[in-house]
Amino acid sequence: MKNKINIGVIGTGHLGQHHVKHFLDLPEVNLVGIHDVNPKQMTSMEKQYGVKPFTSLSSLIQSCDALSLVTPTETHAEVAQACIASGKHVFIEKPITKNLREANLLVEMAQAKNTLIQVGHIERLNPAIRALRPFPVAPKFVEIQRLAPYTIRGTDVPVVLDLMIHDIDILLSIVSSPVKNIQATGVSILTDSVDIAHARIRFENGTVASMVSSRVAQDKVRKIKLFQKDLYATMDLLLGLTEVYQISDSEISASEANQTAPFEYHGRKRLISYEKPPIIKADALRDELDNFIQSIQGKAKPIVDGNAGRDALEIALNIQEKIIQDIH
Ligand code: NAD
User: How many angstroms does the Cα of residue 17 sit away from the middle of ligand 1?
Assistant: First the structure.
């Protein structure tokens, strides 16, 4: 097991099971074991995957180089603190913590202990977002929709912290400017907290984003549209599909799907170029966990580090606060 990273998974419910499966499969990982407060869950995981259950959290922490935290959000801060205090790297599922004070504490602790924090904002690795990377993105207006039919999962938090936070993280990674102001409203429909949220964010560089998230929808929709001078991009995160239209003086570099059409405005003749990059076949969770391992080995940087997780949480909490003010 020399050179392999010793990993433990804490919390092996709905999502934690997938972490276990991927860590068992990643070549540079030795999955030391798991810990879950539910003993039945540990027995079932031991039977299904042959992983070693640890009834003591501190024993698992001491036996590992790094830990993956897939427990309910309200427990992230306490569990992560125990890991970081022992000098261990942590992968924390999103959202990083339930409040900003906890997130700041974790980021400071990790800095002091020289350990990594990676946050599970998995949509950063969505094929549609990856396909956008080669394009000269500097949007002036962004429109985002994330709709989902109701399920009990995730209803322990408002829709902003469950669904919208994915898009906030993507937005902050695309717009390189501080947030200037936020307007938001929302409605409670099926739960006591906000089930549909609408936010309008203005950045200091003038970019405006309009975001809608809902857990009261007939069908799933996850779409992002970017508009900027001479470029329009549309992404379907469910299909992993990105389509980009650009206007230029000459044909833009060829891809197989490229099509061009003439464009004329005020006598100036230019070309509209349409690009549809091939859909990247990838498992975002596997790639995200692999990025964590490579970051520990010093071969990469966390795609979403503790600061990015903290920033997305800050905006999400701000939006949630604005919604509450708007409703009351
Ligand atoms: P879950 O309820 O299915 O599983 C949580 C597991 O943690 C359970 O087995 C529970 O017994 C265990 N647990 C609870 N408290 C614990 C503690 N203190 N120590 C050890 N184990 C504990 O929840 P889930 O749907 O798997 O969600 C877990 C986390 O993953 C949440 O933070 C959630 O927001 C996040 N999540 C992220 C995504 C994503 O898209 N990245 C998707 C789903 C869930």
Answer: 10
Q: What percent of the chain has pLDDT over 70?
A: 97
- Closest among 1, 7, 26 to 83, alpha carbons compared: 7
Residues of the chain with confidence (pLDDT) below 70: 1-2, 251-257
Q: Residue 273: which residues within 8 A CB-CB, separation 6 or more? A: 245, 246, 247, 248, 251, 252, 258, 259, 260
Expressed in angstroms and rounded, the spacing between residue 153 Cα and the centre of ligand 1 is: 10
Question: Which residues, 6+ apart, have CB-to-CB distance to 101 below 8 Å?
Answer: none
Number of Cβ within a 10 Å radius of residue 47: 9
* Element holding 58 (H helix, E strand): helix 57-62
pLDDT digits 0-9 by tens, 31-75: 999 999 999 999 999 999 999 999 999 999 999 999 999 999 999
Alpha-carbon span 90 to 299, nearest angstrom: 17
pLDDT at 328: 85
Tokens of 328: 């009351």
Ligand 1 atom, smallest distance to 122 CA: 41
Q: For 96-109, give the DSSP string.
A: S-SSHHHHHHHHHH
Task: Go through the domains of the chain in sequence order and give each one's CATH number.
Answer: 5-123+284-300 (3.40.50.720), 126-282+315-327 (3.30.360.10)
Query: What are 265-298's pLDDT values in tens digits?
Result: 898 888 899 999 999 999 999 999 999 999 999 9
